[in-house]
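Subject: sequence -> structure tokens, single chain

Hey, anyone have a minute? Need the predicted structure for the following. Not urgent.
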Amino acid sequence: MTVMYLFTRYRFNWDEVDFSIFSTYSMITNLIVFSHMLKMDDALIGLMSCTSKILAGFVYAFATTTWAIYLAPLVDIVNGTSFIAMRSIASKLVPPDELGKINSVFGLAEAIVPVVYGPMYSALYRATMDTLPGAFFLLGGALTAPALIIFG
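Reply:
Had a minute. Here:
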């Protein structure tokens, strides 16, 4: 979110209030979850989520107008469901007495990822700020591609 804030300040000349409104809008659109309502397979939900993130990365990276940046959360609407799908698949594959261990692994991964991705995105943003400020969105999409393959 920090790099996203810097991106919107640079690309769209937004201030804190503009970013706050966009951030609220983005979070509200991500609250909509189709998986529970439509009773879809977990792997299909994961595929949709990863595809959503990759496509939204392109929209974010190449957005040059305010309406385009507001379109990105709509493209990214099912992104958050991949975490739910991964946990659901894992809970079905692991014996009941091992669920605590698998949840610990997920928790550890969720704690370590920001430590790696935050500085990496910041460094990429700093390096590409003048040429392609949205390059970190493209990197995020590229790093999501293995998950897309795994869900497939």
